[in-house]
Design brief:
2 copies of one chain form a homodimer. With 206 residues, chain A is α/β, with parallel strands linked by helices. Chain A folds into 2 domains: 49 residues, RecR Domain 1 (Helicase, Ruva Protein, domain 3); 139 residues, Dna Topoisomerase Vi A Subunit, Chain: A, domain 2, CATH 3.40.1360. In chain A, the strands form 2 sheets. Chain A has a 4-stranded parallel beta sheet with strand order 4-3-5-6. In chain A, strands 1-2 form a two-stranded antiparallel ribbon. In chain A, strand 1 and strand 2 form a beta hairpin. The longest helix of chain A has 17 residues. Chains A and B meet through helix 1, helix 2, helix 3, strand 2 and helix 5 of A and helix 1, helix 2, helix 3, strand 2 and helix 5 of B.
Chain lengths: 206, 206
């Protein structure tokens, strides 16, 4: 593509580095910003830069935060005895969006994956164990992806926490609400028959 | 959507203001940038801001440019006697991408549209006439969109240039190459029959 200006070419190339944005879309975004006034575009650029430079990690749960502690850890209404362990900050957003969870989080920063060279030491597992011991946490919910790496991490963490009184739970797996049986994969359907619940527990565990 | 941090929320909102980008896509872009290192993201933000603040308009053709004159106007190999008149800088990129055009451009900055309050005085028509007179231009190609406003502008410009010796031409309209007759709209097909060409002119006007 020929650009009338190096400035535009640079801007298009920067946008095109983002996932899912090609050169044509990048050009459309640049065109849009060229029509906006100067302060608006400056504000755009500064907000993006600042987001990356000023972001911190919560010293307790390692979630992304504006300050030394995140909003969830600082909130007195949150149950500090209940920790939801997730691999990534995206998962915190996903759980928060349910609006149902009232405990705190612990972001591991990934899952154990020898093939990618990620061992337990690179993850925030030690700090989780410390938290559980110091706060006498009642329950740790392991909300990791149902992959081999996720399952390995759950196994490792539950072993590490064996000497404490904490109850380690995992998310319920099964047919999703609104899902049609016809389209459910075989493994999920087989497992959801094997781990079937009494009807009185259908909508919530006692 | 719940965000763990105001910084991330601001960044997501800024991305979501761009055309074709919703909140979910914006979040995905922010996630991507959060994983990049600080200098990369700073460079991204600065490139976008600089593009808007430092951009200039070519004093001759009013195309976007890094300097007082654009690359096309400065290029000695470009035919200064041939001017392609377009409404927008996007159209310059479109014509440049053909790699076939060796003349110069003139960006009007829009087309005459009384309904939007755009009259000839708001467009770069006067400077076009001045250029044609001063440079003794041989041909002006009106490459405007085939809309009522575009046609009005072509009519207005051609009238303004009547007292000069310049030849005013418009882009050929007709069935596009690779287009199937079955799917061509009636107006285009009817016009392309009415303005049919001798076969020897099929691939290039003499």
């Amino acid at each position: 593509m020929n650009f009338p200006s190096k400035l535009i070419e640079d801007a298009v190339n920067e946008f095109a580095k983002l996932p899912g944005i090609g050169k044509k879309t990048a050009l459309r975004l640049v065109m849009h910003l060229l029509k906006a006034d100067v302060p608006t575009v400056k504000h755009f650029g500064e907000t993006i830069s600042r987001m990356r430079t000023d972001i911190k990690f919560c010293s307790t749960c390692h979630n992304l935060s504006d300050h030394d502690q995140c909003q969830v850890c600082l909130d007195p209404r949150r149950d500090k005895q209940l920790i939801c362990v997730v691999s990534d900050f995206k998962d915190v957003i996903a759980v928060e969006n349910t609006g149902q969870y009232k405990g705190t989080y612990h972001v591991l920063g990934g899952v154990i994956s020898p093939i990618d060279g990620i061992g337990p030491d690179q993850l925030q597992i030690e700090s989780l164990c410390k938290r559980v011991r110091e706060d006498e946490t009642k329950e740790v919910i392991m909300a990791l992806d149902p992959t081999m790496e996720g399952d390995t991490t759950v196994f490792y963490v539950s072993k590490k926490l064996k000497d404490t009184k904490v109850r380690v739970t995992t998310l319920a797996r099964g047919v999703s609400f609104g899902g049609e049986l016809e389209y459910v994969d075989e493994l999920t359907l087989a497992r959801s028959i094997a781990t079937r619940l009494p009807y009185e527990n259908y909508l919530g565990k006692k």
